[in-house]
Amino acid sequence: MTGASGFLGWHVARVLIERGYRVRGLARRAGSITDPEIEEVHGDLRDPDSVRRAVAGCELVFHVAADYRLWARDASEMYRSNVDGTRNLLGACENTGVDRIVYTSTVGCIGLVKGSLGDESTPVRLEDMTGSYKRSKFLAEREALDFASRGLPAVIVNPTAPVGAHDVKPTPTGQTILDFIRGRMPAYLDTGLNVVDARETAEGHWLACEKGKPGERYILGSENLTLGEIFEKLSAISGRPAPKMRIPWVVAYGAGVVSTAIANVTGKPPRAPIDAVRMARKRMFVSAEKARRELGFNPSPAGKGLRNAVEWFEANGYE
After folding, report:
1. Fewer CB within 10 Å, N side or C side of the chain?
2. How confident is the model over 218-276, as pLDDT tens digits?
3. Per the CATH hierarchy, to which homologous superfamily does domain 7-315 belong?
4. pTM of the prediction?
5. Domain residues of the chain, as ranges?
6. Could you give the maximum distance between any two Cα atoms of the chain, in Å?
7. Which of the 8 DSSP states describes residue 299?
């Protein structure tokens, strides 16, 4: 599998290990996979030869890794990892004849409907994608669909916003939770997203492997919440006050422009990436009914993942 050194990938690896599978994890840097039960193999998604060596002998392949950043000084790096890397991996799977591939896409590739819920059938185009991360993941998903149309047994999952334990780096969503419990969230935007527990999202990957149809997409999500509602839940969990001041979008946009311009000069990631502000203009509200119906995916309410995230950050000295 790929991504075993990351947040969601680690959870997927643990789900597989607990089911008795031997897990091999592709790692760009030696020692980046710290779980002793995962066999680390050195390689790079951008290097087809190393990917072929990693895939050799595998029955199942989970491609969870992605360059997940909302700002990059050189955006082409994201395309090389997310698009070219996915093509290399799926090509290696095609040549070695693996039994099943689960490709981890993102809810960002799902079409959105104002006043309603997006789902796997909602029309969407590359032009609808905001920023290099979403565009690169959209193109990578097209690669997976193309390979599946040629007979590769590839199933696609579209996680929403996984939160929970072991968010080591952390992810952008995890960083928002961490900023909240550190008291660094004085105000918020009027936006919304679908939140789901990371461990249960990993279980959804297994269900997709076991029951999913090649070439189909499955949203792995739980509860649609506004950002204000998320902070109220975090307040109840942590005992810290939720911010009451809402920032007008135009003010956030101006801050994003300035913050990103400075980052492009200094090379230091911006506090408010402009792509993140642009994404926040739309509420990422979706339906996971297809995964419930076809896979038996039945996640807990979002509060479970939020509590797991807060408790893990606090227990591991992130405060």
Report:
1. C
2. 999 999 999 999 999 999 999 999 999 999 889 988 989 999 999 899 989 888 899 88
3. NAD(P)-binding Rossmann-like Domain (3.40.50.720)
4. 0.95
5. 7-315
6. 55
7. P
